[in-house]
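Example 3.
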Amino acid sequence: MRQVAIVAGKELRDGMRNRWVLATTALLAALALTLAFLGAAPTGTVKVSALAVTIVSLSSLTIFLVPLIALLLSYDAIVGEVDRGTMALLLAYPVARWQVVLGKFAGHLGILGFATLVGYGVAGLALQLAGNDDPGAWIAFIVMVASSMLLGAVFIAIGYFVSTLVRDRGAAGGIAIGVWLFFVLLYDMALLGVLVADQGQAVTADALNVLLLLNPADAYRLLNLTASPDVSGFAGVAGLGVRTGLGPGVLIGALTAWVVAPLAAAAALFARRQV
Amino acid sequence: MTSETVVMRGVTRRYGRNEAVRDIDLTLFGGECVGLVGHNGAGKTTLIKMMLGLVRPSAGGVLVLGEDPAAGAAARARRELGYLPENVALHPSMTGAETLAFYARLKRQPVARNAALLERVGIAAAAHRRVGTYSKGMRQRIGLAQALLGSPRALLLDEPTTGLDPALRQSFYEIIRDLRRGGAMVLLSSHALAELEGQVDRVVVMNQGRKVADGSIADLRALAAIQPRIRLRLPCAPRAVANGHDAWVGWTSISENVFELSCEEDEVASALRGLPGSAQDVEIVRPSLDELYAVFQKGAP
């Protein structure tokens, strides 16, 4: 555990040094504040709390942005160090390969978690100070921030898997962008296309549930847009959430599985890799 | 003192069809300074990486400090191992002191001792600058400092003296002598035998993945069978030599008045005794280390 903490600490410090922490925190805070004040402007007429509106727009933003940041942070983690030659020296030290993977993962998650917490937290606090009238929306907001970190962890883990899979940094970068496009854009489009074409014949409700859980971005979306009746009413997916029968427990379980599986695969691949 | 530090038995490593290292038997002992010499691509780095467990042998077995270095349980052994890679790669955004502190923590060494180590490799003044701003020699110093962390029992140094200025090279060899006196095994790889002269007890010569020689530099000379030559100047009796007088059989003339004789090592003394008093500028020419090395690289003896 100690070795994991040392590697994680080094990764965090690296993140501070090369401005990753600063850049991502500033980006997320700026976008969150913009969405909070511009997006919440019309709520006065539809009687939905500003915080609830912000949760809907922020979680839609998160689905695009957080996986992208996570993949950019992580795709280089293993293959880059092997390429530069720092990995050979690190592995000559009394540290197991799984400890290297886990430590770097923890460090990167720390960077992304900090950026999310501070970036979104600033927006939440600003809305509170501007006069939030719905304390209940805070629970949904906290769920949204926590699950955004979880979504980040998923894509960092996937990025590590990519990073141990290939021998070339360029290839890792390309695959990472492909992964992002697939999960964030193409998967939903394809799913919608299939559902429309199928007209409810072959794709049953159960099959749809499985298909939604197979994409971590969808699991995240369902988790947040159905978290509270207020939010889901505004997001217009209440019907879907009720009909899918996927409770928060199942969705969080699916996201956790999406963290553990790629990370375990990355550790296993890395253990066999020649440095 | 003379414990077996590294034991390799019938070790072969293939990359696809290419055999980087072929059937190596090698035992290195504590308190020994060993030079690993070979051309680029001779398998030196592969050999060192197998000792570190970074690369697994395709056949044969490796034991370092009594453990299989590629196994998960080798963490204990790695704590007593120092490694300096061929091209020291460090994290450019960390300072020299931070870099060393990071590696000391991984090796469970007190970070407080690092200042002395930085002083020892002569980089204390630049310790709080980022590694990215360092010159090659300075990076090499940090690399050396991290290899020395925690007084290792085995030190594996891949081309350690490239990029070091002569002054640091001297202090580098001094540090190595200290460690050896303390019973550590030091392995130095190099592509030039001449660079290791006077620093190593034993030389292992690699050629195209095979071990072609293993012994002291004197052993290598004997093995290479390059005869020593006696060279002298005879101002007054060139004719006697040219006429093939009995005492001058075997002598050849290199230039006017200068003659040379090749003989076995144990004949040198008697050949010198038989020289006339008129001989001048008598010298014994032994093959240089580069000549010696060339013999092994041709795959000769």
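The longest helix of chain B spans residues 166-181. Residues 4-80+152-223 of chain B form a domain with the Rossmann fold fold (CATH 3.40.50.300).
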